[in-house]
Fold this protein.
Amino acid sequence: MGKRRSVGLELRTLSLLMRRQLDQITSATLTEKDNLTAMHGWTISYLFKNQDQDVFQKDFERAFSIRKSTASRILKSMESNGLITRQSVSYDSRLKKIVLTEDALKIHEDIKTRREILEQKLLTGIPEEKLNVFFEVMDAMKENIGS
């Protein structure tokens, strides 16, 4: 029957391959900027999708299942690269909402298009039924580890 493959190792390997591809896509798209990563691209997409509401660091941490220190580092980097600003809100002086800059809005469409190309590449030859099972299994695993 052979040894079963490690789920954790397979997920890590796929994640690294995807990150490498997205980093290449992002750096090709954002050549005039320094130190931009796939995570910056994901963050821009997340903020773009949620621009109709106030998004705070806590929302960002929750959406990406990351620690406060990681979120802070990513957002500081994006702020120094001119991709986001943090703006006060009238209803709570302690909170600062995260807002995309014009530069980030300009590059969003290109990142989105390139990410869609990668998604198509990933899904080539995989029938919808198998993809549905994949997402069911992923949801169950996330629930099992409490995220």
Remarks:
- The beta strands are 84-89, 92-100.
- The two ends are 32 Å apart (CA to CA).
